[in-house]
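Bench log, entry 3. Co-assembly request; chain sequences pasted below exactly as received.
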Amino acid sequence: MSVKEQLTLAAGFAVALAMSALFPIYQGSGWLTDSFGAILVVVVTGLLTRRFGVPRPLQPLLAVLALSAYLLVVFVGDTMSAGIVPTAATGDALQALWHQAQNNIQHYGPPVPVTRGLLLLTAAGVGAVAVVVDLVAVVLDRAAVAGLPLLVLLAVPSAVLPGGIGGLPFVLGAIGWLGLLLVEGSERVGRWGTPMRSGLPGTRPGGDDSSLGRVGRRIGVAAVGAAVLIPWLTPGLDHRLIGGSGGGGGGGNGGAVKTQTYNPITRLAGYLDNKQRVPLFDYLTNDPQPDYVRMTTLDLYADGTWQASELQADPKKARVRNGIAQPNGENGTHQDLTMKVVLRDHALDVRWLPVPFGPRKVDVDVAWLWEKRSQTVFSASESTKDLQSYTVEATRAAPSRDALLAANLDNVPDDIRSVYERPLTVDPTVTTLTDQIVKGKTTEYEQAVAIQDYFARNPQFVYDLQASRAAPGQDPLVAFLQGKHGFCEQFATAMGVMLRVAGIPSRVAVGFTAGAKLTAKDGSSYYEVTTQEAHAWPEAWFPGTGWVRFEPTPGASGASIPAYTSARAGQTPNGPTTPDPTQGATPVPKPSGTLSAGILKQLNEDNRATPATTTASSRTGTRSLWLVAPILAAVLLVLPVALTFLRRRFRWADAGPLTGWAQLTDDATDVGWTWQGADSPRAAARRLAVAVTLPEAAQQALTRIAAAAERARYAPPESQLREDLQHDAAVVRAALQAQAPRLVRLRAALFAPSTLRWAGSSLGERLGRIMDAVDDTISAVTRPVRRRAAR
Amino acid sequence: MVRRTRAESGAGLDDLLESTGLIRDNVERVIEGKPEVVRLSLVVLLAEGHLLIEDVPGVGKTMLAKALARSLDCSVKRIQFTPDLLPSDVTGVSVYDLQTREFEFKPGPVFANLVVGDEINRASPKTQSALLEAMEERQVTVDGTTYELEAPFMVIATQNPIEMEGTYPLPEAQRDRFTARVSMGYPSPEAEIDMLDTHGGPAALDELEPVADALTVRKLIDVVRAVHVSDEVKRYVVDLVTATRQAPELRLGASPRASLQLLRASRAAAALDGRDYVLPDDVQGLAAAVLSHRLLPTAEAQVARRTTESVVEDLVARLPLPTVSKRR
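Structure output for the full assembly:
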């Protein structure tokens, strides 16, 4: 097999290994076969083109052709005539699959179900990566650069998964790439001839023993090991390997932390699609009528979906634990409230913190920042699954209907206008409908209420998790307005769009409805929020009041139409909400399982204290760090002393003729003496005696120790002296210590350099042995390939 | 420093110390103030090697060679190397005997226990090469017949530095056969005054009496051969010689023969110290004398005025001692 063919195989192998990173994205492994088939097609094509000497520029073209043929046959084979000739139906089928994939990407959060569309997308993507890797590594002879296309396979899941891809896929991908490098490397060496093998008995049996190859493999193993271990071991550093959801770093923008996350709407749809009620968090509040809990808001609308633009905040100034500046110029009544949130273990895994409207301060660690524009508490590096609980102090505005009616949108500040009045591209039917709805409403506020009521108080619209489906090529928004079936996502989307069409600054907020009020065993009440409370709603901006929420969705769990949007609202100035008459009685859900004692305790702890008191930060990591740090420090302090003591103890327990010398070496090292590697015991002792003025007794003891060591190392075994040198060693040690400065003595007692050096070298030896083992394994595995290459 | 017991040094070692002490005293009667040179020549004798004494004229090279020769009661021959000397003048010739009608071999001066080759680099390389076989294999082949040389066989050659006029450099193969090269160096003022007194009177060299014979020397050589060499020291010798082959300042490193001779010389040095085992210190002490004349410096090193001695000394100072065994 030629080197090119080996490289082709290695490239395919590397892509297959890197592909393992896609596992967490999908439910199950149904995608694997088709994607693997795509790699196989590319590899086989590569092998054949190389075997038959096809000119280089044609090789990637043929690979692309073969890959396309494979994809067509596998995915739309039934539409082709005679199974091989594409027809018009083939194009339609492909387009349908493409739309399905797009739709799925927008609507599902990982792990996504394996649909035909996604399957096609994945297989095509993996196949394309295989073609590019093959092109770069084999055709262009640049195996090192082939790491970049391989990285694409790792980057996609790490951008989509909030928790990153973890260490294993990275290591597998790295192994594939190193294998590719190895094959290429052996080819390069092979061009210069086969390296000579050393015949010395000390050399290791088998394998490529050139020290260069060994060093190369060691560097490879060490680099991969370091890349996996260092982030994992470094406290405070995000333990994911590659920048997770595209955020994390953010160094490129003047120190601002940015994050671009997957669309929260897709997560929301995922929660609601899942018929099970999974409790996400519980909260306790002094608010008699808690309103929605908000996570983030979406400001961009395109292709039927709202999306969030990049969140951005200064990591030093925007920490929510230091307080959040309240927006100026918002009048009306405000209500102070405190909310203590206890998250269920790992149930909620997002990068936005659920908080009530108008948070003033949240006691979470420094990773959580406030983005003023979107009014989001977010973190680029952490997820809510890293948290156990937190307390939010908030000031919630109670918008007054009169103020809203009086609001005039002629002078919208630039920061609002530039983002939230951005013109949208919408289907003309939407514009026409909006015009019809707002016709005759004089103020913008009345227009907004009219749009809300068009949805919320209109029996034609039905709350349905199976939203009206769009035909291929149809705008999903138009489909919803025609079909009138949907859930909060469709309602919020539609109203958000129509508000903008009407010229009102709008956005879509994502979060949860207030949740179910439950009573704990001790009689105190708390609220439980589950996946069924996941919700989206539109918000509109009015001068003097700021952002106010609307509720166009009829019948969502716990949804309520804001009081200020109904004409009767003036009577209930305290409560911002009134039960929605169209909604009927919302069934009060039962507690989802018994509340764990720990959560109850945490909730009640806060209940007894004054609600305004901030409890201690409760991030698991931070807490354990505070606990672990002193222990670690103590261990680090005690360990060298204990090691020194134990080494001395064990050394003399099993004393030999060299023990005295070993002890002397350590003792002199501890007082700062540097030993010359070229000195024999005799020469070293002479040098030491000249440099350090020792008393006569110590001189003699030193001589005896050196003589014993000399004999032990160089004299015939039968003429060894059996002397007890422990006393001599103690005498020399005392003499050396006596003439050393106090600081040096202290260092010798606490952090004996000899012990540290010993620990370092034995650790290094162990690591070296492990590396040798890894190296031998790699060597054994790759030997047949290399042998063939050498031939 | 090392306390020696009778059991470990053995009777042979005591005899060696006694005999070599006599020889040393004898030689030092004419070579004043150069105990290390005298010791080195004894080391070479006991290591079954050959000695090259190199220095400017008039510092006592020939005196040392002759004093050593006179101290031993064995056959001694002297060859004065001159530009017109022929190989047969060294090895001997086959002469046609008219009476027996056969060729009869007339042994040359190389057939002796001690051969003093004076001013060896004044002869042409061709003649110098006549010594090659004798020095390494201790035999001489003339006209297809091989004649064994009697043990001990030692060549003590003197030479002037090659920069001197009328000299030929020794071929590498020849230099490699000398165990050690030693420089006499100028004597100290006191030693020089003593020398003036001694040599002012009757010829001191002529008064020297032999203090040992060939048999004694053979026995001493046997004692030296029995000196123990640990694996660590062997490893060290190999490391050191390997280091000369890898040193960037050298374009020719030391040969495996050099390793052998360095180890033999170290054995002899240990025995002369009354030790029955070799220390790395012995190797280190002899490295410059045994290795440096075999090495060739690179052009850069020559321009930088690095001598091969200084390169070897650097290597000795830098090369760490190996630890082969894990005995505690």
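Chain A touches chain B at residues 654-659, 662, 676-680, 682-683, 703, 707, 710-716, 719 (CB under 8 Å). Residues 194-209, 238-256, 569-597, 605-621 of chain A have pLDDT under 50 and may be disordered.
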